[in-house]
Amino acid sequence: MAATRVMASAGNAVSAPQSLDLCFRNGRLLTQNKRLFFVHDFGKKLMLSVVHSFPCAHRSRRFTTAVRAESTNGSEPSAHYDFDLFTIGAGSGGVRASRFAANFGAKVAVCELPFATISSDSAGGVGGTCVLRGCVPKKLLVYASKFSHEFEESGGFGWSYEAEPKHDWSTLIANKNAELQRLVGIYKNILKNSGVMLLEGRGKIVDPHTVDVNGKLYSAKNILIAVGGRPFIPDIPGSEYAIDSDAALDLPSKPKKIAIVGGGYIAVEFAGIFNGLKSDVHVFIRQKKLLRGFDEEVRDFLGEQMSLRGIDIHSEETPQAIVKSSDGLLSVKTNKGTVDGFTHVMFATGRKPNTKNLGLEAAGVNLSKNGAIEVDEFSRTSVPSIWAVGDVTDRINLTPVALMEGGALAKTLFANEPTKPDHSAVPCAVFSQPPIGQVGLTEDQAVKEYGDIDIYTSNFRPLKATLSGLPDRVFMKLIVCAKTNKVIGLHMCGEESAEIVQGFAVAVKAGLTKADFDATIGIHPTAAEEFVTMRTPTRKIRSAPSEILMPKLLLVFDSSLCNEKLLHQRIYMYGQSTPGQLSDLSRCPSPDSYAYAVDEREVAKAAVKNVFLLFTFLHRCDFSLLCKQVKFDFGAKLDKVFELILKLYSVGLCNVSS
Amino acid sequence: MARKMLIDGELEKTNDAESHYDFDLFVIGAGSGGVRASRFSAQNGAKVAICELPFHPISSEVIGGVGGTHEEPGLDWCVIRGCVPKKILVYGASFGPELEDARNYGWDVNAKIDFNWKKLLQKKTDEINRLNGIYKRLLSGAGVKLFEGEGRVIGPNEVEVIQLDGTKISYSAKHILIATGSRAQRLPIPGQELGITSDEALSLEELPKHAVILGGGYIAVEFASIWRGMGTKVDLFYRKDLPLRGFDDEMREVVAKNLEGRGIKLHPGANLKELSKTEGGVKVLSDHGEEIVADVVLFATGRAPNSKRLNMEAVGVELDKAGAIKVNQYSQTNVPSIWAIGDVTNRMNLTPVALMEGTCFAVRYPEILALTSMFVSVVMSDYNTVFGGKPMAPDYSNIACAVFCIPPLSVVGLSEQEAVEKAKGDVLIFTSTFNPMKNTISGRQEKTMMKLVVDAETDKVLGASMCGPDAAEIMQGIAIALKCGATKAQFDSTVGIHPSAAEEFVTMRSVTRRVSAGTAKPRTNL
């Protein structure tokens, strides 16, 4: 029984076997560049074998065939449908999926509402949130607002201004809108050039294969919903005076004094923008700290830095009503009192999926409680011909994730290449001032998932600040799994965090270890080099300090594969903390990290030999629980295991020589 | 017993046999490498001394400074005359172009704006004094004895320190480590004394109105950018067609274009012939017959190892033609008790590399001390056999570096030319040239360029380079990936951070070109 479980989980694990990293008492066993190493704590590295390839899991193969069976005709024109793919919504995800689908030879149409800077049921625009009401205009305003900080800094570097530079809001907004129009044009051209038909109007699902746009019906083999999300303002008295982020990006004049309600990334970004442009900024948050879901230390740090730059943060203060006074100014009534004199009140209280009035319920598409479309790993809804990507599915609401989901879907449907978007280790940035960049887990998540972790932090004054005299600082944090030495989380708050974290995201995604970070030479003098020069852990977190983690070696031989040929065996190694049952394997927190397989005949000999070497290294380990067996009988004693290994070893020799 | 020591990673403390030496280790030169090696060795239990010249921003045979290449008793070139002051000036210079960029973002910057060079210089000096103090405290905190004076080697185990008042004291040491760095060189042409080197350039009394820079290396382009950003008229002369020989040719073109775009006059394929004094300043005559009168002429024509006055030949330490101390992979010279790290060995002249060399030396230090003990050496050989390992040698592969011109260039791994030369199979080149988002509104006409060089067969990323804002910061993380042999597929599987420039590195989907090894040599010889 245990064996079945083992194999099942292992089957999953090896479907994406990037690496192995196992901690032993006096060293680590790990894979690097398709080689298996034992790295002694003392620093020595021993190559154990070359892994020629990783076995393919049966399960993923099955998925492959399943999906393929339904989409074999995907790339061929299907006579009875107008389109192979009809996409509703030409934002990041929709455009990506449509373009790629067309490139794969599908006949594709996409519909989108007419352009407007503020979205509604009847307005949108090609490019979507990211280009028109999100990342792009936001970043442009961030650029604009950062200059005031640079003027301040420049004083410390010998620059002086006869008059303090003044900012003209209308110039900025006009230039911003001109740039957005240019981008919409580019997006339209991209669609046109890839042969996607663009329809202007509101798309509505009539049935699983029919979409209605402005009263005209289009039939499609597949329908993709990529309508995104929209800001949400809670219903409180006076909420009609409040603006959302769409409006905040396109105000006719600059706020003198603005209340920003909410502590999420949109709130902190706008707080930075308006503060930089010299508005008086007040942020109201329900919680104690900004940015729920981010690493606690980063939350603390950002709060401090924002306050130092003059932003007034009202924590645990929730607006209950907005009142307009006779002078036209707004007052915000909260649970703690009233704050007066606002020219603007902005709500950054979250976004909701745009799933209303799309005909989804009638078509039988399941929605979650908050209105998001429920999809499987391939972005398929409960209706087999209807798919959804991007914010409307409320998975990870980021442009690059929508792009990934859209691209993966096009491959799945039209390239005979079923592809799941991979939502692990997705890096992200918050363009607050200073900005945040992060990838992987927060400390709390890491403790929950891995138990034992090492934390490395650095909080320093950057070179620029020592000259400018400003109180700017940089905070960096690495979270390392104590058992495997893998870097499982990386966080930064400070200038250029977003740019800096991208490269590290490649490293974290690739499953690299702290040792790999340490082996990298710094680029001097940069802030980023701090990430590769953190030598001592700030703290070590251990779930059970009294218990010494004693990894065991576990061998499992896959008999089903042995049937085929003499030496087709797999060796799974697993580190477990408590002596006892193999059923412990099912409690393995992340089988991917521990299971590893070798099934190449030519390396079998080496692999078995390596097991011997490991025995030598781990001489102090308790092997009485070491298990093996051809018939999934895990009761054998240690000496029997040796016997078996010897046998296999000799067979391996024979096999190789013959 | 041997086994236990092996596992615990501890060797027996050295016995008292060495007590007849004043020090276990004597380090000459308190720059990045020397400080690192002495601190770490002291932490490993060695009795360490270090000597350094008094601190002054401009180095000479008798002035150095803890922090290296600088003015007063200083420790380190990097801190005193190199990376740090340079970066400070680059920051200072970046504000000029920033002001231009601010205009289209709605900022009124038409009122009079002044730049005060003296103020920046003073702040820079203050900061460097502060860092110098930190370095000194680091040393004393680690228990390293610091001597002020010029050190020279007078025997395989003997160092002489010439103190400030001229008196000489000699010390015996079991091991001697040379970490004296390098010094800027002038071109031997008539009137060369009228020119300055980067040392003086970091501490000029007045900001030059018109500067002529000779050289195409990183120091030359950095100073060109610094002065230009502060409003100086700059003429840059270099012998090749493009600056920054050794870097990727395509990136060199981008740098040249950017320098020109920011108002620096380039004189490729040109050299200086003669300098002479005139009323208006220094008259520069180029080999193309051009005449320019400038107030400052900077020789950025390379650096030479500081090995002259160390008395190396007398004790039998071999130097190469350039005067660099020859060492093996463990930084040991041909005299077993004498070691050398950093720029004086002219391997890869970067601060973090000197740090690495210093660390490797220090980590090995217990071993070096232990070699005399029969017992321990048995352990060591056992160790080597068991692990097939070698003593820790510095690893020079995939070291990222940055040139802080404006905008900066940063690279890691191989250039396209190197990759094509070394590759067995085809090389895939991915490039992306784009208008940075900030420029869409600022109107600045300057493109950012990124490049990945990939081995077609293994999919391994062999090299990455970028020229554009924040390149140095962006490249650090990429460097880890390359160091660990990341594949293009691993880059592709990483989700971008939007909107950033760096995300371009993980979204390069189509190959720009495929270059077959041995064939189609791309443009070289520039």
TrEMBL record, chain A:
Its cofactor is FAD. Residues 84-406 form the FAD/NAD(P)-binding domain. One of its GO terms (biological process) is cellular response to oxidative stress. Keywords: Disulfide bond, FAD, Flavoprotein, NADP, Oxidoreductase, Redox-active center. It comes from the Eukaryota. It is an enzyme of class 1 (oxidoreductase). GO terms for molecular function: flavin adenine dinucleotide binding; glutathione-disulfide reductase (NADPH) activity; NADP binding. The keyword Calcium does not apply. InterPro entries: FAD/NAD-bd_sf (IPR036188), FAD/NAD-binding_dom (IPR023753), FAD/NAD-linked_Rdtase_dimer_sf (IPR016156), GSHR (IPR006324), GSHR/TRXR-like (IPR046952), Pyr_nucl-diS_OxRdtase_dimer (IPR004099), Pyr_OxRdtase_I_AS (IPR012999). Pfam families: Pyr_redox_2 (PF07992), Pyr_redox_dim (PF02852). The keyword Transcription regulation does not apply. Residues 426-534 form the Pyridine nucleotide-disulphide oxidoreductase dimerisation domain. Its EC number is 1.8.1.7. It catalyses: 2 glutathione + NADP(+) = glutathione disulfide + NADPH + H(+). One of its GO terms (cellular component) is mitochondrion. Transmembrane segments: none annotated. Catalyzes the reduction of glutathione disulfide (GSSG) to reduced glutathione (GSH). PANTHER family: GLUTATHIONE REDUCTASE (PTHR42737). Belongs to the class-I pyridine nucleotide-disulfide oxidoreductase family. Homodimer. This is Glutathione reductase. It comes from Salvia splendens.
Automatic annotation (TrEMBL), chain B:
GO terms for cellular component: cytosol; mitochondrion. Keywords: Disulfide bond, FAD, Flavoprotein, NAD, NADP, Nucleotide-binding, Oxidoreductase, Redox-active center. It catalyses: 2 glutathione + NADP(+) = glutathione disulfide + NADPH + H(+). FAD binds at residues 87, 151, 180-182, 343. Its EC number is 1.8.1.7. Binds 1 FAD per subunit. It holds the Pfam family Pyr_redox_dim. One of its GO terms (molecular function) is glutathione-disulfide reductase (NADPH) activity. NAD(+) binds at residues 215-222, 302. Homodimer. Belongs to the class-I pyridine nucleotide-disulfide oxidoreductase family. NCBIfam families: PRK06116.1 (NF004776). This is glutathione-disulfide reductase.
